[in-house]
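Before relying on records like the one below, remember that each one covers exactly one chain. Contacts with other chains, cofactors or solvent are not represented anywhere in the record.
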Amino acid sequence: MKRTIARGALLALVLVALRAGPAGAEDMTGANNTAPPAATEDSMPAVLTGTLKKIHDSGTVILGYREASFPFSYVRQAGAPPIGYSIDLCLGVVDEIKRELGGAPVAVSYLSVTADTRMDAIMSGKADLECGSTTSNTERQKSVAFSPVMFVAGTKLLVKRASGISSYRDLSGKTLVVTSGTTNEAAMHLLNDKYKLGITIVAGKDHQESYDMLASGKADAFATDDVLLAGFIAANKAQDTMAVVGDFITYEPYGLMFRKDDPEMADAVSRAFLTMAQTGDLVATYHKWFLQPTPTGEFLNLPLSLQLTESLRALGVDEF
């Protein structure tokens, strides 16, 4: 089977249509042109390769998830499937994969990963798509691929309000916890060494353990992305006792992670984001997790940042 339009040309045409705006949402007969394309056999590549072949042959797509990266990917009850902003976006990619496979049945399986294990899970094929809070940067792009930017965060500090700490400069002689395998861990070690701050840096195996070390007094501050810190405050109703402080130490553009050098999968991820932009699902999903009470009851009230707004505009979003 051959595609009638080359992949690159198809993406270009879709992007042009997206930028045309809502005026083209319906044709003269009233048909809804914003709906995702229906799956057909003609939409399936003649020869499947890489991740799409793996999914087609196994009938399952494996999503890597984080257990404590609220509101991106988290689990509140043992045995329950993960939920979150990143999970919803990954499921949007799964919908595109199903269309790409001509409507073939695809089951969803979940694999728990940590900051330390997530890249290996993708590279080794244990997971097909990682749905968490993972920074897309040049160094990581040497080993894995990323979706378009879905969020922009930055490293800050979480401290107890009574601690007197308002900046990393106040951490001299104190203990800072970071999560093992994160960009925040590397950034804080560099900062400590560069300015000879004398901070004792310890690592938690995941964000929950890092938070627990701060809450229990084993650490004086917890450094990670500001949105995750705000999430811990909301989830633990700790507004009166905890605060996010300091200037941004790093900026962290998040993406969904998948295997590198896999053009069919890369095209599917790109088309999924273009479709979610066209249908309004990208913005609606953001609102669901950041501007409305979450399904588990927390309320973050985090408006779209300027950086993320510009990233979504590049996908054709013009209503926020």
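Residues 144 and 260 are 5 Å apart (CA to CA).
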